[in-house]
Structure formats: structure tokens, C-alpha cells
Write a structure and sequence with these properties.
This protein is mainly alpha-helical and about 110 residues long. It has helices at about 5-30, 35-60, 95-100. α1 (about 5-30) packs antiparallel against α2 (about 35-60). The chain is elongated and about 75 Å long.
Length: about 110
Amino acid sequence: MSHTQFKVIVFNFMAMIVYNLFRGLYFLVTGKGGGRNTARSLSWRIGLSFALFLLLMALKLLGIVEPHNLNQPTPAAMTVDEPANKTDDGKTLKEIQQQDDSSGGRIRLKP
């Protein structure tokens, strides 16, 4: 499954969920169907949400979808040979750029 196909499937699920949400709202506001149509629409919304959740969990377990964490450094930015006493605390970006750059052009900034 390509990334584009995966995005299309997730987008279609989300569109159907939103459609059923607003369809249930329409039946709730207009009173058509005596509450039966409202319950049916909202049940479909819950079922689709649950199915999407199960699909995402199954794809994660199969290794097709990999979650990411924005707080983790990328492998290109990690260095292995850094001495433990080397710190950049209190330095400005300009000072860091001017120092001897042994990291191959990468600048490591601490939050």
C-alpha cells in the first residue's frame, strides 16, 4: 500500500465520519424520522470511527504505518563521538556557528 493510497483511505473515512455527524445533526434539528434517523447516523459515525481506529492499529502492528515523534532527533543530527564535557549551554547561535565544527555542518541546539 503506497502512502497516497493510505492517505486516500483515511481521507475517505474522515469524510464519511463528518458527513454522518452533520447528517445526524440535520435530523436532530429538523425532527425528521422521529429520532430514528438521528440515532442511525450517529451510530454509523461511531462505527466508522471505530473501524478507522482498528485499521490504523492493524497497519501499525503490521509495520505498514510508522508513527513519528517530533521531539526525537533525527538520526542525521545525532553524533556518537561527542565528548561528555562538551556543552553549548549559554552560547548564542553565532558563537556555535563560529566554533570548530566537527559535526560535519550540523548544528545542535538545545531547547
